[in-house]
Every structure is written in structure tokens, then in C-alpha cells.
Specification:
Layout (H helix, E strand, L loop, with lengths): L1 E5 L9 E10 L9 E3 L6 E14 L5 E2 L4 E4 L6 E17 L3 H6 L10 E3 L8 H10 L3 H16 L8 H11 L6 H7 L4 H12 L3 H19 L5 H7 L5 H12 L3 H8 L3 H4 L3 H11 L1
Helix pairs in contact: 2-3, 5-6, 7-9, 7-12
Length: about 290
């Protein structure tokens, strides 16, 4: 069993944050716990290789994805995912900010808080990639298959690089704590143009994206160091105070920090003892 992020080939890191392998095995008589997914600064492809997923957005009922390959746009609020049956395996390709726009030419705001059949967005051979991943004999072989697939996408990039693309990566490196006026200036754009192009390439406005980045650091930090109190988390993640952290949790999850992490403790990876190493590794990458 595994839940781990892997770096892609160095030549592809301009476009790919990581590959993520999620492999859960529960006794067939045991119901797999739901996973509450908060917003993260990412758009990604899910290759569902074993099992199936039902997804529940706020104010919507549960829906079976019923798709082997799913594209998720940038999320701005929590969704809940349910996994069936006892064995579940998926492989994820997590894009860098703006990379999905560069590779597909689709304005990212059209994908925000949505999911799609990836076969309607990417070359038809993506179905063959799914088959290769299903028949891979090891996790290492899956990573090689993904590198080859992404390499073909990169060789047919649809949109030219823009200064804004490197700016979004800088936002990630600074955990969202950077002046938006300065970012606009560095992008050689006026504030209005910067916001418009950012929304086109990322899917949300820059202020919301900065909040999601900072919230994700707080979420990862609490999972990596569950013994830390919330004031320390707020300080470590550059929140003005604890109340600002609470506001982000309520806006993005609908729950207080304590309420959300009580739910998080029931997640599949927590039940399987996979959490500590996963989130410590994510902290090392930030």
C-alpha cells in the first residue's frame, strides 16, 4: 500500500509538480473511509486503475465518476470522495500552475470546480496510457509510462510561455506570501491585465490562489505535526493571527480547523498509517 508523491523527469518539471500514486487495500468486508479533499493549488489527471470513486460536492448529491480517466480543474471548496471496493489504485499527474492551460489551450476558469472525461481533452492515446498503467508490473514502471506520456504533451504545447507562468511558481515557493502588485509588475502587466490573464491561466484570481497556497501549507503542516497547536501553525504559515487561519478553513472546507482535522483523522491514509511520511515529505518540498 502506498500514498506518495514522486518527482517527474527533470526535463518535465516545468509542467509537472509531481506524480501521485494512491494504492489502498482494505478487507472486502471493511468500508473504505471517505476522504475529504480541501482545495489545493493544483489541476490533475486521475487514472483510476482499480476500484471506483463517488464524489460529492457541496450542495450536490454523490455521483459515481464512472470514468477511467478524470481531469480535475482547480478546486476552491471541499469535496468528498468515496472509494470502492476493498482495493483501490489510482495514478495522478499533478500539473504546475498554468501548465494545463499551456498544454491544452483551454482557459482554466472553464475547468474550475469541475471534472471532465480526460479523453475529451487530451489525445485519444490517453486510453492506451490507462491500459499501460493498469498492466504495469511496478510503481517505477508507472512513472516511466507517465514521463513518456507527458513528454508527448510537452512536444505539442498549445500556448507560448508567459512571464506570468514563472510568477505563479514563485507564489508557490513563497507559500502565497507575496505582494500581488509586485507580481503584476514582474509580469509586465497592469493590475487589471494581470488579474485577467491569471484567471485565464490558473482558473481563479491571484488573491484566492495565494490564500489556497497558504491554506495548503497550514493543512500539510498540521498533518505532518499533529501535536502542534493552532497558534503555532498560524505563525509558521505566516497568518496574521489564528482568526485569519480559521477564516480560511471555514471558507475552503466549511469547518473549523479542529472539525476538519477530526474528519481528516478518519481518512483512508490515516487508517492505513500512511500519513506521517506523506506529509513530512510534502513539507520538505515546500
Amino acid at each position: 500500500m502506498i500514498l506518495k508523491d514522486f518527482l517527474p523527469n527533470p526535463a518535465l518539471r516545468e509542467f509537472i509538480q509531481c506524480y501521485r500514486i494512491c494504492h489502498f487495500e482494505f478487507d472486502k468486508t471493511t468500508e473504505i473511509p471517505l476522504k475529504a479533499y480541501p482545495p489545493k493549488p493544483e489541476e490533475c489527471i486521475y487514472f483510476i486503475l482499480k476500484g471506483s470513486i463517488e464524489i460529492e460536492f457541496i450542495n450536490c448529491g454523490r455521483k459515481n465518476l464512472d470514468l477511467p480517466i478524470v481531469l480535475f480543474g482547480q478546486q476552491t471548496f471541499i469535496n468528498k470522495r468515496y472509494f470502492f471496493p476493498g482495493v483501490f489504485l489510482n495514478f495522478q499527474i499533478v500539473f504546475q500552475p498554468t501548465a494545463l492551460f499551456q498544454l491544452t489551450g483551454i482557459p482554466s476558469f472553464e475547468l474550475t470546480n469541475q471534472y471532465f472525461d480526460s479523453e475529451n481533452v487530451f489525445p485519444k492515446n490517453i486510453g492506451f496510457i490507462h491500459e499501460q498503467l493498469q498492466h504495469a508490473k511496478s510503481y517505477s514502471e508507472m512513472l516511466l509510462i507517465a514521463d513518456r506520456f507527458v513528454g508527448t504533451l510537452v512536444s505539442n504545447v498549445r500556448k507560448d510561455v508567459h512571464l506570468l507562468d514563472s510568477i505563479t511558481k514563485l507564489m508557490m515557493q513563497r507559500n502565497g506570501n507575496i505582494s500581488l502588485d509586485w507580481l503584476a509588475k514582474e509580469s509586465c502587466l497592469c493590475t487589471k491585465q494581470f488579474k485577467r490573464k491569471f484567471n485565464e491561466r490558473v482558473g481563479v484570481n491571484p488573491k484566492t490562489y495565494a490564500r489556497i497556497i497558504r491554506f495548503t501549507k497550514a493543512y500539510n503542516t498540521k498533518n505532518a505535526y499533529p501535536g502542534w497547536d493552532w497558534l503555532r501553525i498560524a505563525i509558521e504559515c505566516d497568518y496574521f493571527d489564528y482568526q485569519h487561519l480559521v477564516k480560511d478553513y471555514k471558507d475552503f472546507t466549511g469547518l473549523t480547523p479542529n472539525e476538519f482535522h477530526l474528519l481528516e483523522k478518519k481518512s483512508p491514509e490515516n487508517k492505513l498509517g500512511l500519513t506521517d511520511e506523506l506529509y513530512r515529505s510534502r513539507m520538505r518540498l515546500t
